[in-house]
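#lab-general

N.A. 3:47 PM
ok so I finally got the sequence cleaned up, no stray characters, all 296 residues accounted for. can someone with queue access submit it? mine expired

B.Y. 3:52 PM
send it over

N.A. 3:53 PM
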Amino acid sequence: MQRDILVAIGAGLGGMLGWGFADFFAKKTIDRLGDIETLFWGQVIGIVPLAVLLAFFPTIPSLDGSQWAYVAALGVWSGLSYIPTYVAFGKGQVSLLSPLFASYAVVVAILSATFLGEHIPLGVILVFVVVFAGVVLVSGDPRSILGLLTGQRAKVQTIAGVREIALAIALYSLWLIALDRFVSGRNWIPILLGIRIFSALSLFVYARIAKRKLAVRDASLWKFLVPIGVFDVAAFAAVTFGYSLSSHVSIITMLSGAFSLPTIILARTFLKERATGLQTAGSVLVVAGIMLLPFV
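B.Y. 4:20 PM
back already:
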């Protein structure tokens, strides 16, 4: 197998596991601390491992002023693209909105093929369909999504959070494409650190404007906040590393987009949550798709 594809698969799996673990630790923190508050501290904590990593690999890319401004813009874009997702989850049913947001992976794959000229073999496309179907089954009830896609226009407009999720999908999909185009062939560590810093700053400014208090008064929450930041930045590091070395943007994005699978497994194991038959079937599809990917 080509090294390019192996890097893409490894990066995608790293993103899937990192975001899956981060979401697991965020499950109760958001309810006790708040969505923007949890998001902000996760971004801030994630700066630390990146700074440590940069200390061991202290290579600063030779970027001019406009390129560093682009890094800052990517950071602000990253921070703000999270907000509509959390707002949507606060308004509507997560079981419906979460699989809709997971479709960003398919959007990125289509954009990569359409505008970046990435060749996607038929076998890989079939695997994408299998993995995405599994993500939908794991994340929610596909009958609800089918009703959304085939229902009357008036009914679609009454579903709370759909507009925010649509905005989040557009922002995040375009952000991933912009990130891939920028980090390709460059040292990704300082770039990701810069993005992370400006992401945290943008959320801080947003919190001040929205008059949200960011103080963590319950010290017991730090045992959840720290893993959120570490695993989240580990996922971004894996995906960014893959983008910098591999041309298979769609594979990286599709596999990392299956982040709901480890979250479901962890929730079942440690939180004793019960899974539906559809979620179990979806888990099998995701695992099967991941196992098939190296052979297509």
